[in-house]
Specification:
single chain; 168 residues; alpha/beta; four-stranded parallel beta sheet; 5 helices; globular
Length: 168
């Protein structure tokens, strides 16, 4: 959460932001830590919309309420248990005897996580396109150890990428 607070403090005040985190105490702790750090999380934009929005994983799909957010911050990544992933794959293949080795299962996990990241990213303004069909520019911060670069670049050619170094 420290990194999320650091990012929030650096966001331009005139640009809406969306934070995606986990349910229950994570969401409340994020808001408490933002307030404690002096981040005006309750501030509204001139149009009355909240400046800083927080949703939880599970609500990261099918919502167009945040298409004017120029910043999306993913505070951790949503993971399903590997057994659940393996079971879903076997069901999709219609083969209950289907097995994956550990590297295959880890690859499947990363692919599912990247899909969730793309869904969450697409809540922001990159969901919209200009007259030339290009996505609106948007900044996404992924606060996690996973390296999803290769999967995301393959799905979104032209994606700009920076890796931040976090100091302890």
């Amino acid at each position: 959460i420290y990194e999320a607070v650091r990012i929030a403090k650096r966001l331009p005040p005139g640009e809406r932001a969306l934070f995606v985190t986990f349910k229950d105490w994570h969401e409340a702790r994020l808001m408490d830590d933002l307030h404690a750090a002096g981040v005006p999380a309750g501030r509204n934009m001139p149009n009355g919309e909240p400046w800083l929005n927080v949703i939880t994983w599970g609500k990261h799909t099918s919502d167009n309420s945040y298409t004017d957010c120029r910043h999306v911050v993913l505070v951790g990544l949503h993971r399903l248990p590997r057994l659940a992933l393996a079971s879903q794959l076997a069901a999709q293949k219609r083969d209950l005897t289907h097995r994956r080795d550990k590297p295959g299962l880890l690859g499947l996990e990363q692919s599912v996580i990247a899909g969730d990241v793309m869904q969450a990213m697409n809540r922001g303004c990159m969901r919209l396109t200009d007259a030339e069909g290009k996505a609106h520019p948007m900044t996404v911060h992924i606060i996690a150890k996973d390296d999803l670069r290769q999967l995301l670049e393959r799905a979104m050619p032209g994606l700009g990428w920076e890796t931040a170094t976090v100091k302890a």
